[in-house]
Amino acid sequence: MSPNRIVNDFSITVGTANGSGSSTANTTLLRALFKMGIPVSGKNLFPSNIQGLPTWYTIRVNGEGFVARREEHEIVVAMNPTSFVRDLADVTPGGAFFYADDIKLPINRDDISLYPMPVKELVRSDPAIPSNLRDLVANMVYVGILAQMIGIDQSKIEMALNFHFKNKEKPVSLNMSMVKAGAAWAAANLTKTDPYFVEPLSKTNGMIMADGNTAGALGSIYGGVQFVGWYPITPASSLAEGLNEYLPQLRQAEDGKNTFAVVQAEDELAAIGMCVGAGWAGLRALTSTSGPGMSLMTEYAGLAYFAEVPIVIWDVQRMGPSTGLPTRTSQGDLAFVANMGHGDIDSLILLPGSVNECFEFGWRAFDIAERLQTPVYVLSDLDFGMNQWMTEPFTYPDTPMDRGKVLWEEDLEKIGANWGRYKDVDGDAIPYRTLPGNTHPLSAYFTRGTGHTPEARYSEEPDVWITNMERLKQKYVTAKQYLPKPIVRSTKGASFGIIAYGSTEPAVEEARAQLEKDHNQKSDYLRLRAMPFTSEVGEFIQSHEHIYVVELNRDGQLQQLLTIKYPEYATRLIPIAFNDGLPPTAKWIRTAILEKEEN
Question: Partner of 194 for a Cys bridge, out of 113, 456, 495, 502, CB 3.0 to 4.6 A?
Fold first, then answer.
């Protein structure tokens, strides 16, 4: 046994084939470690085209709570002959390589621990496993062997399987039999020569594991979503699928009738078009998509902006342009969404920085959309949307829904003929609206995407157009008071600032800790949570001589938008922008900052 134990600080990567049933095994490992009280995260790297291509699942284990992706692979499990050579090369020197022993390929490394696994032999030797299920439960052999070799509690594995199979006895029993068989074989036949172990902690007490799409779906339900129009697209489909799963459980009337409608449209144009109609009719309406779908939705989004119809659009970002890399993560849509529509237009954007905020912004987006009478975009990404993260339990909103400025019969009776659909009565640039069902004779107006007067009459008069467009611009100044403020973390003696948003948060925080501990480089950090930029952003930029803007795209889109907004501070804003489709690592951020600090 290796004399230098490394406990609760490494990554496990499993290489399998897409469609081989490894998902259950990998999430079982993840949840078992989580149930041992150890901070973890799980990331699935899978192909976008056909079944059978290589796929990898990486579990980050870190007792200090840092769960961003790492570039190092200390423990690698190789189950796929196609990716075997790559998997072998990826093992960190001193690491452990577990592999199915029926893969007869040369191994030319003497700097790692090698552990062959008789996967097929163990599966075939158990008469309780039906022949048609052997390939699926075979993955549980490596779960058992790994558990034995690094110290994963088998009772936690069983708890994870019960969670996965919803306490169904037969599938749990079949899978646990392979876990136990693998563990027993490893105990009898393998001698541990690598240094990696896990030991129980209590750092996940009170926490849950969830993905951002499920969190966003639940948040939308608790925010009162009534209509969903959507079209399938990776990586956003599971958000709508989550709504389909949970709405029937949570949003049925006492008589059993649904209080919602979910429509899978024929394409993205139809999906958002339905949402605009539903939002106009007074329903809380949502659609979810990714970059290519956003491109198709642009014209309707411009209509909702100009006609002032509240809708919520979730953009779970992936790699573009064009089809790009559908199963890789990115923050490449920010600049596009910030100006989503032709002509002069503004966008309200929410930027969740955790799975918990995916839930929170799920309900908050509706309040903001109805208060401001405009589309609200929630920009998540594949890393948040489809991967598993530790999070605090979601908190039910404790504030009443903000339906905004809606006039009913009694309201119109008081106002009389002075009401106009696009009049700025209160000086905040937000007009009042009526909804279908209002029977007052003054409630009707004509909704249009063409030029219109405050009373919603058609107009091509230049002064009418300018007045309306200036009011719309002013509405986005009003919007800032309703948006989530950025989170600022200050460090005494900081020599520079960092601005980031979204799923870069875990890697940024780990990089900050490493920079301070290993290089005595202290930083202040602003995590952006919404656009337009609020006063806190300008104050942060003004108070730092140089600021690194970290994001996952090629061109530094946030840095460009900040430069446009604060041109007097343009030289202070330094882009740290890179995107290869993989989640960011602290090493990448730390190295990039150190290189720029030296220059």
Answer: 113
